[in-house]
Every structure is written in structure tokens, then in C-alpha cells.
Specification:
By secondary structure, the chain is mainly beta. The chain has one helix and 13 strands. Strands 1-2-3-5-6-7-8-9-10-11-12-13 form a twelve-stranded antiparallel barrel.
Length: 294
Amino acid sequence: MTRTALWLLAVLASAVPAPRRVGAQLRPHDPIPWEAVGAEGPMARVGMGIHWGARATLAGTRGTLLELGNVLGTWSFGRVALEVGGTAVRVFSDDSVYASPVAGARAPNGERRVDTGEQRLGTIVLVTPSSSPVEAVLRFGTRLPTTDNGQGLGRDQTDFYGTVGGRLRPGALEITAEAGVGIMGTRLERPEQMDALLYAAGVGWRGGRGGVRLEAVGQHDTRRSAALRGLEDLSEARLTGEVGGARWVRATVLRGLTLASPDFGVTIEAGTRFEGCNAAFTPSWNERPGPGSN
């Protein structure tokens, strides 16, 4: 099982492209899916969200953002988890204009802006022993170029992210934190690149059949210069309630904390864990005969 996990990790690492440019950010990068850390087998979740007072900063408009098909899938092999996720469709309705469009984005024409969202490919590695009271993980990956420049909801470019995170679980409480860097490019000759601080922190409580969680998620431009269009600081406060066990339903209410973030939003997700799947992938050479076997 260890050799299989390391082989998959090597394949994923070789598939991650060198850091290039990043698409415009409407929402901050999602934090570590902690339910996949130290687990076994695949997990999948799908959902949708609506956000009022959002900004399509490349288009220079403010309006309502509808996200359909927010998907995350992970496959955990104990200490290593692979993750694939993204948003299938984004629909943006312009309500007002606050700036001229840039980077090839179209001006408002009365039509909704419809485009795909970001697509992500990543790896999570648990680096602490099972006996440690604090779980520390390394997470790295890429966001892939899939968007249409003309819609103003993305730049059809690629970015790279790498973070470290920690989790402490005293009893029914769960305390998490994550920080790292996003290597993000621009459509300008100068500056060509912006390095953003990615961060997330949360505290939650979980009982037998449900739980509640409060967290802050965001990204911060580490430069001292003026904000770049499409790469503004983003930050959200999120309150999440969850019910279920191996199958769950999750609802989140969020509040934007920066000018470029949505004023208010609601997301709903459903997820499930598929147990026992890893046994089918256990190599036969891991099954050693016991004493006295022929």
C-alpha cells in the first residue's frame, strides 16, 4: 500500500506544470479537506452556491454569482491523499459597473456571463506520525486553465499553490490552520507575477451525527503596490453546519471581508465516503504467507 501511494504521488508530481499565470479569482482557494487526511479510500462531494454583491473584477462589474457543480473528489491512502476538484459552471448577472473591462473581457451587454470555474489537481501528505497529538500536512497542486477570457470571470491561465497545515482535535473540538503561497501571474509586462499569501483557520465541534464550524479563508497580495485587477485580496468568514456520517449534507453561510469578495453567500453540499475500496488495490506482494504456509 505504501509503494502504491508513493507511485501515485510521483505520477501526480510529474503532472504538475511549472508555475505560470493564474486566472482571476472570484473566491479564495478552498482550505484543506481535512476529512481526507489520514483516511482510507475515496470521498466525493458536490454542491452549489449563490453569492450576492460579488465582483467580476476583470469585467469591472458587480452582481450575483451562481456556482453550479462545485465538485471535490479525494482518494486517501493513509498518509497520502490525491484531490481533484473544481466548478462546472459559473453564471454571473451584472447589476452595476464600477470600472472599464480589462484583459479582453467584454463590456456589459445585458446578457449573463456564463463560464466554467477553476479546475484543481493536488496532493495532501500527512508528515507527522500517528502518535502525534497534532496532525501536520503538506499540500501542493495546480489550478488548470479552462475559462473564457471574454466572459471576464477568468484568464485561462495556470497557477501553483503550496501550503502547510495543522489540526488539533481535543475531544469533540477541531482546530485547524493553513498557510502558504500562491504563485500568480498577471497580463501585464510589469509586474509579471504576484505571490499571494494563502491562509485558512477554523474551529469546529462535531457530535455523533452532526457538527458546526467557523472559519476564515483568504488570500493576500504580499506586494505594497496597488492591487492588480483580477488578483485583489479576498477573504471570507464562513459558518458551516453539517449532518450525517459516512453520507452528509453541509450548508454554509459566508460573509465577504474585503472589497473584492462577495457581500454575502450561501452554499449547499452533499458528500459520501466509499469504504473498503482500497482493499481492491492492495498489491498481491503485500500479502505475505504466515508461518507454516506452503
